[in-house]
Design brief:
This protein has two domains: about 5-85, Elongation Factor Tu (Ef-tu), domain 3 (Beta Barrel), CATH 2.40.30.130; about 85-220, Threonyl-trna Synthetase, Chain A, domain 2 (Threonyl-tRNA Synthetase, Chain A, domain 2), CATH 3.30.980. Helix content is about 20%, strand content about 40%. The chain is built from three helices and 15 strands. It binds zinc ion.
Length: about 220
Amino acid sequence: MTRKLFWEDPYLSKIETTIKTIDGHRVTVDRTILYPFSGGQERDHGTIGNREVTDVFQQGRELMYVLQNTTGLRVGDILPMHIDWERRYALMRLHFAAELVLEVTLRSCPAIEKIGAHISPDKARIDFLWKENLNARLPGIQTEVNRLIEEDHTILSEYSNVENEQRVWEVPGFARVACGGTHLKRTGEIGRIRLRRDNIGRGKERIEILLDEAFSPRNR
Ligand SMILES: [Zn+2]
């Protein structure tokens, strides 16, 4: 099984990996940092041996990487694996922003039901079953999430079940939530967020989450 370094250290952007199997354009590797589409979060972009990864999907607990080109590759080759770090870090920041927005929203409206989520590098969204217009609650949710970010809490990530590869994140004193994502180390890395509400049909509400780039850790 592929060793999932994206969990052990989500901040790795370049490693060396060994090709384990080759089947047409599909390969498996012994260790990886390239995260697949999962939990609504878009996949990483990257390369293996300078060949573009055009897709990655899970097959059981194995990850299959589809390469643009496998000509000349052999099982046992040790190659550099690289991910687009700017993209991944944006995904990580928006992913954890969405985690905080979800937790705060669930506490603000205990009867609300999450029905979907999507994380892309420029925005995240969470969809809910909820009869009311969420607009009135949005400023309160935004303020509370920005406060949690400002307080720069430690985020712990660990296995809740190693055998089944179940993962959990925890902000001590705030929440402990099951999720197999790649999580930041501190809430402060998110910077600051803005929320927008959208109505996506009868009885459904969407919250869109945007990063305020003026508050990006890079610009501070
Ligand atoms: Zn998560």
